[in-house]
């Protein structure tokens, strides 16, 4: 297969070589055999790091290496118990670090799998979508504009296909494709006009091809340069935390060095003080914070997946929480995308169409009389245009609908654009079928839908060998191309009065929430090469009809828009549709206020100077009849105004706007590969409510990361302060090295990770979005960390002083301060669950994982205190009930003061609101 040069052979010969019937495709059984033979269609990645390497990497940290060195010195000095204990704690910390990194890596791998593209292939005689990794040589594959090619293919059917091959050739100019075999050998990829290669992108047209090479055998495989999602990029937050970690490292090392020097000057043993300093430094520096942040982001991704969205880039979770403007498509996102033709307007008569969705059970009604077949030449030509100027396929349980199946009860579905699907269904209700019409009409050429021109046309040769053009598109665009019209079957000149009548009807239909298309035709006397240029063909058209379709607004979108209002998020509708239709839908969704909101069209945008965009767009709620270029300008302007913008898109031309947006959102059902590649998030259900749910999770993840910081840094501050105060006021060392490390292991690990499972606050979508430049420690977080750290340090040292004077036993005093630190931090973790409330209001049972983590921490601490063997290792003693009362009181002081503070804060807010009123 490697030496076979398919571009030198006719497509039929290529099909024979790969033993495939291009009408049926491969069978499921044969595709499995070939998959085993050729392997998955993917580029081989570099060998992954083994588990053992990952575990060993945990011991490369600077502070851990120092601790291991100190352990070796302890062994040499005969301090075997301390050395073994410290080593065990170091190993346990390494295991915990490995688990955190392993979970983060698995989450990123999951993102890669979910982002795997799909291809439309012919298997067992039916078209179906499969993962591109399951493509095999011999598969029959279909392409359309916007698709990213996943295998090297020999084309056998093309229609105005242009391909961007810049990834392989470096040339950005699109290459036109054909199916002709190449006569002589050519070495350059862009000279093989009958081939299409993995990694390239369909810019225009539709095509079918035979898969010839997959995986590492493709041209892309040979240069091993497959584009992948940037799953390893660091978020702004992660970079900030790394910067914070470096500063904390220097600060903590300075404090710990001071403690060591002061202790030595006061006569403490040098080795003992060095061990204490190293242990304190290890405990004080939150080295696990980056891994915990990654896990928090990954948990957010998993929650969003459950809500029908896929995050392609991990950093975007953080950005989602900042979004304050959502630019959303109308069709399919704010509406159900279940198009149904309801009215056909002609200049001589109107037709009402009954039925819903893609069911064929419906009728054409004229003058209150139903008709079952097309009557009159105008209606026949109109329905012909419905079926022929159309690329959608009506299917019944994977069986293409035709005359044999059309009246059977079943679940119908559309493979293709929903608008085109509605037109096919409408024609079928009047017994007009594409396969019947095409028996006497041959397709000559297609001019694909152009997002700028907003029209699509097809050229057919009829049974009389006449060339007939059928065009559909935006009414105002189609009317610009029309010179004549049909009235009572007679061709007449399209006067200004008739044009005005058509546009008035278009506006009337639009106000009834209908999406309106215009249908036109043209007879061409003979073929001319100049007709390959659409400008020469799409002119002097004959107007046939207006088609009104309804697409109901989504109920959940209405609720989601209200949530956005409460959350300080502005929702903007961007559509290529008629302004009247857009306004009608917006009113139905309660997102448009006629007194203050503005509608702006693409034509009006063209007249506005760029430096006036900011002012002009300020109160715009709907952008109608806009092109992809306008979308890009809108996003740029909104960002320039300081907004954080989320933008939806589905077409190839939406890619620039999706890339420009802070959060580019592609459609999972109807989006193109190019749109998905350019996006940072994919909606699997194309639903606006899913965007809002994702933003909520983004806010929740950020809130959880603030909880981590508040918890870890306050606890570490308390530990350092306890040791520092003890040395400063000439007390014995409050904690031994093994006790410091134990506190770090018991409190910094499991409870901190469990905070990531906290449910979002019920008020999280009632808060304003945070600003782009907002610091992680803003809104009083740093103050809370310092306050609680000082409180933990002071109460712990007071417990130490009391116990030392009361019991006159250093081990008793150390056991009490040791336990006070652990329980203070356990109490603090519950206080960290909310920044606006307190534990007495939110309770302690809202996070199952946190409860389990705390229970494990308490059990481990009790084991250290009461099991004799553990007492010998950690130099602890059993505590009595009086000591426990003091410990629990000291540990709970933070919760009590927090509750009182929150209560006064709430009273002040109530008083302020009363005064304001």
TrEMBL record:
InterPro entries, alphabetized: ATPase_P-typ_cation-transptr_C (IPR006068), ATPase_P-typ_cation-transptr_N (IPR004014), ATPase_P-typ_cyto_dom_N (IPR023299), ATPase_P-typ_P_site (IPR018303), ATPase_P-typ_TM_dom_sf (IPR023298), ATPase_P-typ_transduc_dom_A_sf (IPR008250), ATPase_P-type_domA (IPR059000), HAD-like_sf (IPR036412)
Keyword Translocase: yes
GO biological process, one term: export from cell
GO cellular component, one term: plasma membrane
Membrane topology category: Multi-pass membrane protein
Entry's transmembrane regions: 62-78, 84-102, 244-264, 270-299, 708-733, 785-804, 848-869, 881-904
All residue ranges annotated as the Cation-transporting P-type ATPase N-terminal domain in the record: 5-79
GO molecular function, one term: metal ion binding
Record field: catalytic activity: Ca(2+)(in) + ATP + H2O = Ca(2+)(out) + ADP + phosphate + H(+)
Pfam families (UniProt xref): Cation_ATPase (PF13246), Cation_ATPase_C (PF00689), Cation_ATPase_N (PF00690), E1-E2_ATPase (PF00122)
Keyword Transport appears in the UniProt entry: yes
Enzyme Commission number: 7.2.2.10
Keywords: ATP-binding, Calcium, Calcium transport, Cell membrane, Ion transport, Membrane, Metal-binding, Nucleotide-binding, Translocase, Transmembrane, Transmembrane helix, Transport
Family membership: Belongs to the cation transport ATPase (P-type) (TC 3.A.3) family. Type IIA subfamily.
Full protein name: P-type Ca(2+) transporter
């Amino acid at each position: 297969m490697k030496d076979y040069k398919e571009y030198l052979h006719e497509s039929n010969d290529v099909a024979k070589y790969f033993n495939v019937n291009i009408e049926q495709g491969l069978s499921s059984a044969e595709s499995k055999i070939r998959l085993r033979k050729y392997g998955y269609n993917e580029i081989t990645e570099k060998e992954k790091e083994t588990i053992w390497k990952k575990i060993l990497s945990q011991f490369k940290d600077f502070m851990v290496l120092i601790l291991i060195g100190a352990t070796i010195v302890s062994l040499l000095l005969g301090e075997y118990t301390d050395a073994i204990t410290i080593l065990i704690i170091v190993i346990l910390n390494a295991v915990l670090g490995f688990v955190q990194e392993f979970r983060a890596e698995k989450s990123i791998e999951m993102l890669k799998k979910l982002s795997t593209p799909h291809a439309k292939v012919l298997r067992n005689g039916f078209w179906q979508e499969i993962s591109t990794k399951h493509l095999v040589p011999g598969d029959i594959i279909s392409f359309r504009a916007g698709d990213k090619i996943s295998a090297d293919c020999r084309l056998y059917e093309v229609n105005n296909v242009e391909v961007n091959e810049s990834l392989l050739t470096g040339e950005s100019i699109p290459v036109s494709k054909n199916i002709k075999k190449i006569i002589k050998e050519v070495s350059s990829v862009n000279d093989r006009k009958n081939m299409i290669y993995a990694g390239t992108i369909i810019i225009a047209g539709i095509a079918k091809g035979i898969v010839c090479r997959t995986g590492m055998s493709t041209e892309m495989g040979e240069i091993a340069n497959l584009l992948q999602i940037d799953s390893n990029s660091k978020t702004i937050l992660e970079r900030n935390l790394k910067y914070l970690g470096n500063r904390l490292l220097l600060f903590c090392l300075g404090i710990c060095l001071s403690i060591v020097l002061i202790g030595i000057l006061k006569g403490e043993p040098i080795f003992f003080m060095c061990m204490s300093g190293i242990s304190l430094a290890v405990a004080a520096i939150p080295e696990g914070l980056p891994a915990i942040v990654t896990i928090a982001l990954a948990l957010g991704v998993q929650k969003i997946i459950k809500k029908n969205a896929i995050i392609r880039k991990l950093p975007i979770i953080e950005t989602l929480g900042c979004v304050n403007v959502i630019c959303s498509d109308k069709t399919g996102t704010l509406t159900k995308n279940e198009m149904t033709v309801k009215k056909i307007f002609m200049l001589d008569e109107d037709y009402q169409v009954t039925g819903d969705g893609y069911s064929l059970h419906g009728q054409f009604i004229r003058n209150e009389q139903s008709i079952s077949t097309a009557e009159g030449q105008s209606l026949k030509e109109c329905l012909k245009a419905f079926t022929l100027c159309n690329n959608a396929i009506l299917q019944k349980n994977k069986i293409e609908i035709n005359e044999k199946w059309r009246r059977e009860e079943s679940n119908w579905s559309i493979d293709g654009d929903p608008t085109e699907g509605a037109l096919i269904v409408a024609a079928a209700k009047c017994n007009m079928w594409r396969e019947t019409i095409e028996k006497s009409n041959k397709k000559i050429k297609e001019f694909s839908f152009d997002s700028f021109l907003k029209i699509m046309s097809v050229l057919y040769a009829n049974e009389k060998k006449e060339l007939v053009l059928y065009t559909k598109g935006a009414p105002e665009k189609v009317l610009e191309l029309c010179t004549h019209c049909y009235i009572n079957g007679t061709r007449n000149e399209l006067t200004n009065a008739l044009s005005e009548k058509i546009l008035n009807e278009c506006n009337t239909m639009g106000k009834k929430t209908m999406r309106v298309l215009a249908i036109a035709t043209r007879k061409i006397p003979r073929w001319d090469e100049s007709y390959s240029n659409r400008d020469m063909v799409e002119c002097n058209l004959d107007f046939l009809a207006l088609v009104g379709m309804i697409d109901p607004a989504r109920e959940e979108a209405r609720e989601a828009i209200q949530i956005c209002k409460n959350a300080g998020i502005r929702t903007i509708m961007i559509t290529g549709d008629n302004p009247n239709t857009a306004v009608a839908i917006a009113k139905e969704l309660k997102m448009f206020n006629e007194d203050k909101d503005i509608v702006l069209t693409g034509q009006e945008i063209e007249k506005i100077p760029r430096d006036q965009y900011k002012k002009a767009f300020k109160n715009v709620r709907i952008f109608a009849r806009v092109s992809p270029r306008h979308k890009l300008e809108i996003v740029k302007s909104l960002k320039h105004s300081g907004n954080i913008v989320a933008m939806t898109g589905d077409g190839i031309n939406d890619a620039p706007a999706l890339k420009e947006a802070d959060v580019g959102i592609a459609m999972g059902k109807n989006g193109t590969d190019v749109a998905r590649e350019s996006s940072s998030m994919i909606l699997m259900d194309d639903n606006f409510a899913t965007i809002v749910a994702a933003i909520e999770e983004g806010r929740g993840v950020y809130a959880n990361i603030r909880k981590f910081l508040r918890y870890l840094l306050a606890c570490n501050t308390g530990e350092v302060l306890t040791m520092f105060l003890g040395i400063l006021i000439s007390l014995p060392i409050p904690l031994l090295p093994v006790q410091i490390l134990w506190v770090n292991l018991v409190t910094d690990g499991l409870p901190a990770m469990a905070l990531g499972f906290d449910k979002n606050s019920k008020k999280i979508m009632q808060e304003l979005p945070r600003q782009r430049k907002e610091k992680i420690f803003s809104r009083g977080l740093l103050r809370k960390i310092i306050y609680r750290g000082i409180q933990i340090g002071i109460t712990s040292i007071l417990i130490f002083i009391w116990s030392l004077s009361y019991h006159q036993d250093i081990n008793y005093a150390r056991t009490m301060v040791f336990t006070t630190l652990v329980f203070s931090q356990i109490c603090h973790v519950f206080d960290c669950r909310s920044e606006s409330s307190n534990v007495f209001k939110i309770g302690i049972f809202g996070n199952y994982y946190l409860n389990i983590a705390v229970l494990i921490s308490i059990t481990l601490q009790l084991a250290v205190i009461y099991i004799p063997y553990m007492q010998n290792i950690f130099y602890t003693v059993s505590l009595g009930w009086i000591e426990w009362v003091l410990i629990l009181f000291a540990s709970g002081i933070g919760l009590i003061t927090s509750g009182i503070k929150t209560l006064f804060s709430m009273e002040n807010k109530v008083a302020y609101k009363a005064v304001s009123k």
